[in-house]
Structure formats: structure tokens, C-alpha cells
Amino acid sequence: MPVTDFSTLQTQLGVLTWPLLLCAFLALMICLERSALFLHQTLLSIWPKKQAWIKALRQSSSAATTENVSVLLAQTSAQQDLLARGATLLLKQVHQPKVLREELLSLWINKQQRDLQAGLKVLQVIGIISPLLGLLGTVLGLIDMFAQLGQSQGPVTPAQLSAGLGLAMNTTAAGLIIAVPAITAAHLFGIWAQGQCLRAGHVLNQLNLWLAGIEDISIDSNQYQAFSKVSSKSRSSSTEQKSAFNSHTQIESQT
Questions:
Q1: What's the half-sphere exposure (Cβ side, CA atoms, 13 Å) at 164?
Q2: Which of 12, 60, 126, 189 could bond to 170 as cystine, CB 3.0-4.6 Å?
Q3: Which residues contact 6 (CB under 8 A, 6 or more apart)?
Q4: 210-219 as b/e, with b when 16 or more CB fall inside 10 Å?
Q5: pTM score, two decimals?
Q6: For 211-237, what is each residue's pLDDT tens digit?
Q7: What angle do CA 188, 47, 93 make, to 5 degrees?
């Protein structure tokens, strides 16, 4: 029975049967692998106990100490999700300067984004090639149809047209059936990967600020404590400089 089905499929698609089947197989394997990764990361991100350290970090009002860092490192080391792995990497470099931790974090996020987007370029290429293969099948079907008509001595019958037109339409439909899901999946998985990296980068930057000594890193507050600790002397100095600048501007305008 499978041999009969393959023979029927080969009759309908012609010489492009194997290229179209190869594109369909590759697209299916990549979609299944990315879907498994998507489900795994989604379950880890929505599990309350797995992300408890993030809530505690955002609500933290104390400065980073050796004890706090050790407790947080113990929590993140036991987890395997994207945020926990990034936090573990950052906490292990707590004795490094803040600038070096930022460089390390940037390189790590770029690598994670490449890993999350692995195979998506191939999906996009399949989405581009498949319609072109269908178009090629259409052209070959029309060529075959006109060749049969040229060899016919009698009047043209629907039977003579059906074989060539059927091959042309079948290959076009097969190419579009492969291309539409491939392109859609590539864009959706790409959006998801970008969102995961942006979210991880935001939380890990908060963690880096906390390690740098900023006590209040709550994202709900309108101002970060690092910018609210402005002494009155600095404010008065800024006001005096602004007044002097305005007076100098008025003098120049009068002259």
C-alpha cells in the first residue's frame, strides 16, 4: 500500500517529488524540535517555584552581601531555565567589575539568542524554495502538456490537457502547503526567541545593578534609588550653574 501511495504521489508531482518531500521533512523536523524547546522553556518560566528568586530580587530593599549572593546562587544553580543559568553565570562573577560583568552578560545573551533561533534560517530558506519548486513544476507540466499536443494529429481532448495541467497545479499546491507553515513557524519562533532574550536581559541587568550596590531595583517604582540619592549640595550647585547660564545669556542678548 505505501508503494502504491508513493507511486501515485510521484505521478502527481513528477520529477519534483523528492525535492518537495525533502523540504517537507526538514521543515517538519525543525518545527518539532523548536516546539519541544518552546514547551520546555515555557513550562520552566511559568512554574512558580522555579521563578521565586526573581520575585524576591525585585522586591529586595537590601544591598548585595556575601550571604545574600550565596543564597541566591544556591537557588539559581539548582535550576536549568534561561534566566537561572544567566543569573548563575553572573553571580559567579560577582567579584569582577560591573563593566566586565556587562560584557560577559552581553556575550552570553547573544549566544543564547543564536541557540534559540537555531534552524529558523533553514525554515525561511525552505519557505522561499518550496514555492519556487512548485512554480518549476508548473512550468514543466505546461511544457509536457504542449509537447503532447504537438505530437497529436487529431483534435485536442480534455484527457490530453488533464495530465499536464494536473502536474502543474499539484506541484504549485504542494510548494505552497510546505512554504506557508514553514515561514509562519520561522517568524513565530523568532518572535518568541527575541522575547525570551529581552526578558532575560532585563532581569539580569537588574541583578547586575543589585550586585553593583543599588539597593532598590524594583521595576514598579518610578525612580531608581541610584538616581534619587542626589545631595542638596549637588542640587543647589546645579541651580546656581543654571542661573549663571541664564544671566550670561541675558547679558549677551542685551549687548
A1: 15
A2: 12
A3: none
A4: bbbebebbee
A5: 0.72
A6: 887 655 554 444 433 333 333 344 444
A7: 85
Task: Print the SS3 string covering the chain.
Answer: CHHHHHHHHHHHHHHHHHHHHHHHHHHHHHHHHHHHHHHHHHHHHHCCHHHHHHHHHHCCCCCCCHHHHHHHHHHHHCCCCHHHHHHHHHHHCCCCCHHHHHHHHHHHHHHHHHHHCCCHHHHHHHHHHHHHHHHHHHHHHHHHHHHHHHHCCCCCCHHHHHHHHHHHHHHHHHHHHHHHHHHHHHHHHHHHHHHHHHHHHHHHHHHHHHHCCCCCCCCCCCCCHHHHCCCHHHHHHHHHHHHHHHHHHHHHHHC
Q: Is 134 exposed, middle or buried (0-12, 13-18, 19+ CB in 10 A)?
A: buried
Cell numbers representing residue 41 in the block: 522553556
pLDDT at position 228 is 35
C-alpha cell at 120: 529558523
Return the C-alpha cell found at 96.
569582577
